[in-house]
Amino acid sequence: MNNAVLRLTDVTRTHGAAPHEVLALRGVSFAAYPGELVAVMGPSGSGKSTLLTIAGGLDQPSSGEVSVEGVDLARLGQEGRARMRRTSIGYVFQGLNLIPALTATENVALPRELDGVAPRRARAEARRALEEVGILDLADRFPDNMSGGQQQRVAIARAVVGERRLILADEPTGALDTETGEGILQLLRARCDAGAAGVLVTHEARHAAWADRVVFLRDGVVVDETGTDRADVLTEPAAR
Amino acid sequence: MNQRIGGWRVALRLARREAWRRKAQTTLMLVLVCLPVLAVAAAAVVWRTASVSGAESVDRRLGTSAALVSGSGTSEVLQGVDPDGPTSWVSEDEHVATVDEVRGVLGADRELVPIAQEYLSYRTDRGVGDLVVTQTDLANPLTDGLFRLEEGRYPRADDEVVVNAVVAGRGPGPGETLTVLRRTPDGETRTDLHVVGIAASATTREEGVAAVLPGALGVPESQPAWLVGGDPVSWDDVRALNAVGLLGASRQVLTDPPPDSALPPEVVGDEPVDETRLTALLLVVTMVLLEVVLLAGPAFAVRARAQARTLALTAAAGGTPAQARRTVLASGVVVGLVGGLLGVVLGIGLGALLVPLAQRFLGTWFGPFEVPWPLLVVVACFGLAAAVLAAVVPAFSASRQDVVAVLAGRRGEGRPSRRSPVLGLVLVGAGLAAGLLGSRASGASPALVAASALLSVVGMILLVATVVALVGQVARGFPLSLRFAARDAARHRTRTVPAVAAVGATVAGVIALAVALSSQQAADERDHDPQLAHGYGAVPLDATADPTAVRRVLATRLPGATVDAVDGVRSDDPEAFVEVGFEVDGEQLVLPTSGVFGTAELVAGAAPAALGLDAADQERADRALAEGRVVLVRGADAFGPEVAGRVRVVAGERAVDLPATTVHPPGGLGAASAVLPPAVAADLGLPVVTTALALAPSISTAAEQDLAEALATVPGAGTLVVERGYQPEDGVRILQWVLALLGGILMLGGTLTATFLALSDARPDLATMAAVGARPRTRRRVAAAYALVVGLVGALLGTPIGFIPGIAVSRPLSRGDDGSTLLAVPWPLLGLVVIGLPLLTAAAVGLCARSRLPLVARID
User: Fold this and answer.
1) Higher-scoring residue by pLDDT: B727, A211
2) B649 neighbors B658 (Cβ within 8 angstroms)
3) What does the pLDDT read at residue A234?
4) Is B553 helix (H, G, I), strand (E, B) or coil?
5) For residue A115, what pLDDT is reported?
6) Which has the closest alpha carbon to B37: B300, B341, B291?
7) Which sign does the torsion angle of CA B285, B48, B31, B842 carry?
8) Is the distance from CB of B401 to CB of B312 less than 8 angstroms?
9) What is the pLDDT of residues B107-147, one digit of tens each?
């Protein structure tokens, strides 16, 4: 399958040097396709967050290959990987996602403005993204004046603004109540249904239920990969 | 390009909003940037207002006239725009200017008001004082602006006078009689004038000033001068005046000067560039900039730390490391712009408040209130540059932070650079070499000395991180608070290093200046040439003086003082010609004939105590004089051999060779050349008279002025000389205190900034300590320990560094005639700065810090 938005091939990430080195990921291969939401599950320290930072080009694998929309991130410099995050990759973290000194619109417009888009146009795009996640009325509010759920919606708007095709979400509902969390996952799901690929790191099975596939990590190794429907186990998503 | 512009737009927006969100931190940053700008702006306003430009001084010099024309003393002259500037005498013949010559050039119908200024004397309550007398008709409108009438009226008759407040304070006031004394070689003339008013001179403030009508005090000795009414006097008119030997200060020419090409080449010369002053100025500006940058550095480091998550989120949203740098630098831009503008505005206000105060202390009349806008723009830019530079290191650290670590809630400070300490040592070495080279006896270079200061301080800054890290490593055996502070300082180097460097640079600057000042002072003391024995005074008497009258004044003014007559042979008496000399290499070396006793050839049965001989020399001199030998007084700087066994005394036509005994008074030359026994003087027929009165004990400085004024009333009494030994200049003493104070303030400022920023940063750690049972006073102890670490490490680093430029500056300043140099270490100041101030700062911080431990949850 060549149309994967995100593909990790035999990725290993080592921290520190021998004899104290720690293997965060060991030979992980994994892909996410357009329209697909993949959940990554595993206990603490299993390498979930490391996988996400490597997928977003914030960290570099010690070995292996990571490509986003067919572009090998290792071939890009720091500038190139930053450009990918402005145009192709969107991040959503567990909490403290937003820059407190910027309004909701400015937070969402941030990647576009950094990309050199004129402020007026960037804000217009940001307002459209905010409308998509249903909080256009909060456009001029600062994060301090928003609830956790509202902040996460702004974060999702920022992750999708500019038609980015890969959304990486690291426990985006971890700091939210159940109902608000469900709403956030619903948004993620909707964005993937609209054609983006999503990777959701979570340790709650009910959140993983929103995903098309679940990848299980333990000690940096993919120990299982399954569809949320047990019958789909190990079935290539494109074949379903 | 669009990305860069967009990046700066976002960065500046973030900086602006962050500045508003973190008001306390921003206020601190603003204060650090604003204060030096404010101080310099205020000083610039005072300086600009104090300096009276040529155009501004026109009214003060010319009143309302078109020009002031004066005789040059010769029949042709060349002048520049201002006759007080360079002039050139074309003719060498003596010539006294006349009214007709002025009218011949400027027109027969011109109004001319005579004006003259003379330096005379007047009777004060205590004696006689100096007086600047202007002779002109102050009622004439052309003179408006020369004086400001404060009380009474201007003179209308020849026996009337107005005086300024200085004269009124020391002598006659309104309604009383002013006695003006004109002293010439032919004698003294006295004129009694009726004081009709108090008027302030526009040009002279602290001296005694009086104004009378022309001719009221006879014909002045100065060249005649006139204030010219009517149409403006052009540059061509001035040239025409010059052609007949007149000088012209023209309002039109002074306010609208001709181009340099129109000036005679003889009076046009480029001002030589004072390389030393320029170098010193550049060094001071650079060091002040460095100091401000270092003081503000910790605040920007903490701001960057506080923005760490923002920067990481920006990176996650596609921001590059350059964007992180821009964001932190934008803080510098915002704070620098606001701080610079605020500093300038407040500085103008402070300057306006200081102008009257400065005018009172400086004793001059200032010009109209003036704001030097171009200079203030430069000063504001200095503030901006300082803030941006202070943000540079935090910006680069921020751009290198581990984004993943920060997003995961960990701190992302990198390892210290291994290259920095090596480069630091190299720079310190280069500074040392530059200092040695720049202070050589031959080829000394102020630029190299300045470079030595800069190189060694920058080198020290590069060493700070390593030293702080080392302190953290050796903290194992320290008490808990000190250990915590040392390790915390080492962990947060971006915050600690600029604070320690600021203290270090301050200490280095203070030590350098203090060493230079002390060494110069030691050299001045070494080179001091006492004129008399320590504590003694002398009043020389000329041939007309009555010693009894002088004794009477001394007895009145200094009751209880011992007054001894010093006898000798007058050097100014043609009837009493005497020379004392001895043979050197076949030629006669004649000794000086004049001295502080009115002569250098004394006649006495015992050496006068005022010569200041030590006990052995005094005994030898007395014995020699008793035996009829001449006593030769040879100071350390006396020309010729130190000792001579025989001298030749020439008295008129007679010359005799006599045995001599040599003594060595303190000082370079001594107060006399020789002391002749009375019998020898009698044999040679020399007229021996009292040439001076020597008095002991020492006279206070306050009493000296009163005594000098009282002695000035006695005809023939010379100027009182008092030997107080080497007296360090007040300016030097004040400067040393200012240095210690400035060092203390900067050290306190730098340490306080860093300490309280550290405490706010360490809230989670302190909360943890509270959770495990730390007592409330722990926070205070940690604060004091942090201040001690910053202050002590900075002081210990700065002290040896300060010695490098200190020694380099001291060597040329203290170099004696024999090439030897002095190094005087100001140990008390050194102890105060290195040990006293860090301890004092730590104590102050410990007392000021809140003792309550924070109750916050750890967020990282």
Assistant:
1) A211
2) yes
3) 36
4) helix
5) 86
6) B341
7) positive
8) yes
9) 888 899 999 988 888 887 777 788 899 999 998 999 988 89
Q: Each residue of B782-804: pLDDT tens digit?
A: 888 988 998 899 999 999 998 99
Give the pairing type, strands B630-633 and B654-663. parallel
For residue B114, give the H/E element and its range: strand B112-114
CB contact under 8 A, A116 and B403: no
Question: For residue B337, what are its two tokens?
Answer: 């712009």
- State whether residue B252 sits within 8 Å of chain A by CB: no
Q: How many CB pairs under 8 A join A and B?
A: 83
- Specify the pLDDT at position B1: 67
Report which DSSP code applies to B768. Answer: H
Mean pLDDT of B652-676: 80
- Point out which residues pair with A222 in neighbouring strands: A217
Residues of A with CB under 8 A from a CB of B: 49, 53, 56, 58-59, 78-79, 82-87, 91, 93, 96-102, 106, 110-111, 113-117, 119, 158
Domain limits, chain A:
96-164
- Mean pLDDT for the stretch of residues A11-23: 84
Is residue A215 pLDDT above 80, yes or no? yes
Q: CA-CA distances (angstroms) from residue A221 to A25, A29, A36, A230, B836? A: 6, 9, 22, 21, 61
What three-state secondary structure class fits A223? Answer: strand
The pair of structure tokens assigned to A107 is 């937070």
Give the minimum alpha-carbon distance from B310 to chain A in angstroms, rounded to a whole number. 5
How far from B271 is each of B85, B266, B447, B517, B640, CA to CA, in Å?
12, 14, 20, 29, 41
Q: Is the pLDDT of residue B853 over 60?
A: no
Altogether, the residues listed in chain A come to a count of: 240
Torsion over CA: B624, B625, B630, B633 (sign): positive
Contacts of A44 in chain B (CB under 8 A): none
The pLDDT tens digits for B356-410 are 888 777 666 777 788 889 989 998 998 999 999 889 888 888 888 888 888 877 6
Find the helix or strand (DSSP H, E) in which A219 lies: none
State the pLDDT at residue B857.
43
The first and second tokens of residue B690, run together, are 């009292």
Whole-angstrom CA distances from B700 to B495, B539, B610, B703, B728 are 54, 16, 18, 5, 16
Contact at CB, A114 and B314, closer than 8 angstroms:
yes
* Contact (Cβ atoms closer than 8 angstroms) between residue B75 and residue B214: no
Residue A128, token pair as written in the block: 């459209």
C-alpha–C-alpha distance, residues B821 and B808, integer Å: 11
